TrEMBL record:
<dbReference type="InterPro" id="IPR031168">
    <property type="entry name" value="G_TrmE"/>
</dbReference>
<dbReference type="InterPro" id="IPR006073">
    <property type="entry name" value="GTP-bd"/>
</dbReference>
<protein>
    <recommendedName>
        <fullName>tRNA modification GTPase MnmE</fullName>
        <ecNumber>3.6.-.-</ecNumber>
    </recommendedName>
</protein>
<feature type="binding site">
    <location>
        <position position="234"/>
    </location>
    <ligand>
        <name>Mg(2+)</name>
    </ligand>
</feature>
<dbReference type="InterPro" id="IPR005225">
    <property type="entry name" value="Small_GTP-bd"/>
</dbReference>
<dbReference type="Pfam" id="PF10396">
    <property type="entry name" value="TrmE_N"/>
</dbReference>
<dbReference type="GO" id="GO:0042802">
    <property type="term" value="F:identical protein binding"/>
</dbReference>
<dbReference type="Pfam" id="PF01926">
    <property type="entry name" value="MMR_HSR1"/>
</dbReference>
<dbReference type="InterPro" id="IPR027266">
    <property type="entry name" value="TrmE/GcvT-like"/>
</dbReference>
<keyword id="KW-0460">Magnesium</keyword>
<feature type="binding site">
    <location>
        <position position="255"/>
    </location>
    <ligand>
        <name>Mg(2+)</name>
    </ligand>
</feature>
<dbReference type="InterPro" id="IPR027368">
    <property type="entry name" value="MnmE_dom2"/>
</dbReference>
<comment type="function">
    <text>Exhibits a very high intrinsic GTPase hydrolysis rate. Involved in the addition of a carboxymethylaminomethyl (cmnm) group at the wobble position (U34) of certain tRNAs, forming tRNA-cmnm(5)s(2)U34.</text>
</comment>
<feature type="binding site">
    <location>
        <position position="84"/>
    </location>
    <ligand>
        <name>(6S)-5-formyl-5,6,7,8-tetrahydrofolate</name>
    </ligand>
</feature>
<feature type="binding site">
    <location>
        <position position="123"/>
    </location>
    <ligand>
        <name>(6S)-5-formyl-5,6,7,8-tetrahydrofolate</name>
    </ligand>
</feature>
<feature type="binding site">
    <location>
        <position position="251"/>
    </location>
    <ligand>
        <name>K(+)</name>
    </ligand>
</feature>
<keyword id="KW-0479">Metal-binding</keyword>
Length: 458
């Protein structure tokens, strides 16, 4: 078990002028006391915050003005003593604080090590730990709520109740195997087993059905805005970004200059593809229009195809329609403030299987309708995220599929008249697989692998 004290910069979610250096472990308070000038932290009550200065113990130089939070074991995230040092200022000063802490006895935490300690100390289960990863990555409020819900243990409780059902069934079988003298016991047992197994099988199926939406909420819907030059693609991008406060992020694990732009439309996170392409090609007169469109289409889950109301339908428009066949498309006829030149009957005919919206972006008209069309497409009516347990984690989805498979095997085994102990193996397997989701039957190497995915400081 870890007994040293770890430290890292724990970057808060969202932007902010305040950075936090977090320490966890038995020496946290001792180490903080060495460098903190202010209240005696060793005498501070748990969960209190104190203003003071960080002083270098040798040079006596003031490093930072800080607020220090003291949280004592066991009522903390890791169940260890935690000290959080809040400092304003940017990257440089927060790094100086971290350095000072490390010089005075803490060890730099590995990625995910705080959460790993919380898990190992029984504070959270594995699916909750993974929810922390999702939380860090959550791009929109909705995805954030989903991650929080999972952290609440909602998914865990559901999985536990499924496991409980399977366990009861297995216990039932054990009892009956111990008393084989009754006739038709085997038959009765198989009947109970079949019913219960079917129930759990169905519940897993339902969980998996939420998985697609869950994934979308977590990663964002890859959205391509395409159309001929000058139809209003950039204007559309700006309208969506203004209305919905675009979030620009670095993609984790790639080079610094790759950015992704997210907008949150009625709770649907759109990950806008190649916005640089839309924003930067203005001067080059977008010669590459259709070429570029083909490229971004490869990545897209959703296409916003823009047409010009004030211009005739062209062959290029026709080509774009061909390129998006079979995809989720919203057709936008923009510039309705201009005299109509486009043949709307033709547009309607061509857009039969898609949503069709008319806009005048310059007059800010039609944007509401467009947003509604986007929401409708992905939530098919009035899906209320608050009431659903989403499964959005790839590992969970995989395990649920495997558990479902094992239960399916059990059910067909029963139907084919297999001996009960054979069926039992499949049910036990499903029980074990479900256990992996909440970390009950999980191997050490898997734990290490999972926690290494964390950002530093979590
Ligand atoms: P893009 O080339 O497809 O990205 O088109 P832009 O968004 O750059 O727009 C091209 C021109 O059309 C700009 O001068 C816009 O101001 C103008 N524009 C955009 N939307 C409208 C609209 O709804 N009505 C009118 N009249 N002009 C628009
Ligand atoms: Zn443009």
């Amino acid at each position: 078990m870890d007994t040293d004290t770890i430290a890292a910069i724990s970057t808060p979610i969202g932007e902010g002028a305040i950075s936090i250096v977090r320490m966890s472990g038995p020496d946290s308070i001792e180490i903080a006391s060495k460098v903190f000038k202010g209240k005696n932290l060793k005498e501070a009550a748990s969960h209190t915050i104190h203003y003071g200065k960080l002083i270098h113990p040798e040079t006596k130089e003031t490093v930072e003005e800080v607020m220090v939070t003291v949280m004592k074991s066991p009522k903390t995230f890791t169940r260890e003593d935690i000290v959080e040092i809040n400092c304003h200022g940017g990257f440089v000063s927060v790094n100086r604080v971290l350095e000072l802490i490390l010089e005075n006895g803490a060890r730099l935490a590995e990625p995910g090590e705080f959460t790993k300690r919380a898990f190992l100390n029984g504070r959270i289960d594995l699916s909750q730990a993974e929810a922390v990863i999702d939380l860090i990555r959550a791009k929109t409020d909705r995805a954030m709520n989903m991650a929080l819900k999972q952290m609440d243990g909602r998914l865990s409780r559901l999985i536990q109740s499924l496991r409980q059902k399977l366990l009861e069934t297995l216990a039932h079988v054990e009892v009956n195997i111990d008393y084989p003298e009754y006739d038709d016991v085997e038959e009765m047992t198989l009947e109970v087993m079949k019913t219960k197994t079917n129930q759990v099988h169905e519940e897993i199926e339902q969980l998996l059905q939420t998985a697609r939406q869950g994934k979308i909420l977590r990663e964002g819907i890859g959205t391509a805005i395409i159309g001929r030059p000058n139809v209003g693609k950039s204007s559309l991008l700006n309208a969506l970004a203004h209305e919905n406060k675009a979030i620009v992020t670095d993609i984790p694990g790639t080079t610094r200059d790759v950015i992704e732009e997210y907008v949150n439309v009625r709770g649907v996170p759109l990950r806008l593809i190649d916005t640089a392409g839309i924003r930067e090609t203005e001067d080059i007169v977008e010669k590459i229009g259709v070429e570029r469109s083909r490229k971004v289409l490869k990545e897209a889950d959703l296409v916003l195809l823009v047409l010009n109301y004030g211009d005739e339908w062209t062959e290029e428009d026709e080509n774009l329609f061909k390129a998006v066949e079979g995809m989720d498309v919203i057709v936008i006829v923009n510039k309705t403030d201009l005299p109509r030149k486009i043949n709307m009957d033709q547009v309607k005919e061509r857009s039969k299987q898609y949503s069709l919206v008319t806009t005048s972006l310059i007059q800010e008209k039609g944007i509401d309708e467009l947003e509604q069309a986007i929401a409708d497409l992905f939530f098919e009516g009035d899906l209320d995220a608050g009431d659903l347990t989403y499964v959005s984690n790839v590992r969970h989805i995989q395990l649920l599929k495997e558990a479902k498979q094992s239960l399916g095997d059990a059910i067909s085994g029963i139907e084919a008249g297999m001996p009960i102990d054979v069926v039992q193996i499949d049910v036990t397997r499903a029980w074990e697989i479900l256990g992996e989701i909440v970390g009950d039957t999980v191997s050490d190497s898997l734990i290490d692998q999972l926690f290494s995915q964390f950002c530093l400081g979590k």
